[in-house]
Amino acid sequence: MAAPPTPTSVDFHFDVMCPFAYQTSKWIRSVREQTGLTINWRFFSLEEINRVEGKKHPWEREWTYGWSMMRIGALLRRTDMALLDDWYAVAGSALHEQGRKPHDPGVARELIAGMGLDPEIVDRAIADPSTGDEVRAEHDRVVDAGGYGVPTLFFGDHCLFGPVLIDPPSGEAALRLWTAVTAWLEFPHLFELQQPKTARHHAAIVDSLRPYLAGRDWVSINRGEVIEFPSA
Predict the structure, then answer these.
(1) pTM of the shown model
(2) Cα(201)–Cα(195) distance, rounded to whole angstroms?
(3) pLDDT tens track, the chain, 232 positions
(4) Residue 133 lies in a domain
(5) Which of 4, 29, 115, 196 is most solvent-facing, going by the fewest CB within 10 Å?
């Protein structure tokens, strides 16, 4: 079996709400800086995948946390992927590093204005139902591939969940992780490699999530395992 060539592009599915996807996005940006990798930012909804039966779907609500932030991103992406790139960086930093609330419409408008853009973009994105259609289609792509969360990476049709990080490497370490992740593409039936979490790991995770816990207005759900977060 010949090793496949190193990918030159990746589809990176994210939800702004997810602290782990945000940390992984910082790593993939470092890889891009060093290799020229093309990152195609795509969407996935934690609200929808974790929806309790009987509750409204996010597209049935006038405004809803991550779904609305991604709809803003969808409108920006129609002009330039770089605008979505910037929006994810700005909104992600606000929530996961500063403990702010980019999911609040007023804060979202402030962040958009801080990017040098018209804050009315927020209202236009929500008034345009097709932005929600874009988010839903990309969410469904992950689900149809067997996915259940983010970060999810697509290399063509090859779908990988992860890597899940709380301290993303940069520089040469980022490239070593990139090599390790893309090595999986040679083995289409390699499904899992996981490090079990000890009490020490859980403590490190909670410590890394302090800004996110301060900024969130929702209950965090970790599918497949339970991590107890202290009240924000």
Answers:
(1) 0.92
(2) 10
(3) 677 888 999 999 999 999 999 999 999 999 999 999 999 999 999 999 999 999 999 999 999 999 999 999 999 999 999 999 999 999 999 999 999 999 999 999 999 999 999 999 999 999 999 999 999 999 999 999 999 999 999 999 999 999 999 999 999 999 999 999 999 999 999 999 999 999 999 999 999 999 898 888 877 666 544 344 433 3
(4) yes
(5) 196
List alpha helices for the chain, DSSP H.
19-35, 46-49, 65-79, 81-96, 105-114, 120-127, 129-144, 171-183, 199-208, 210-215
Residue 35 belongs to a domain: yes
Q: How far apart are the first and last CA of the chain?
A: 50
Domains: count for the chain:
1
Q: Report CA 53 to chain centroid distance, whole Å.
A: 24
Evaluate whether residue 149 is within a structural domain.
yes
Q: Which H or E run contains 14?
A: strand 9-14
What is the extent of the structural domain holding 85?
A: 11-215
* Cα(97)–Cα(82) distance, integer angstroms: 21
| CATH number (domain holding residue 199) | 3.40.30.10
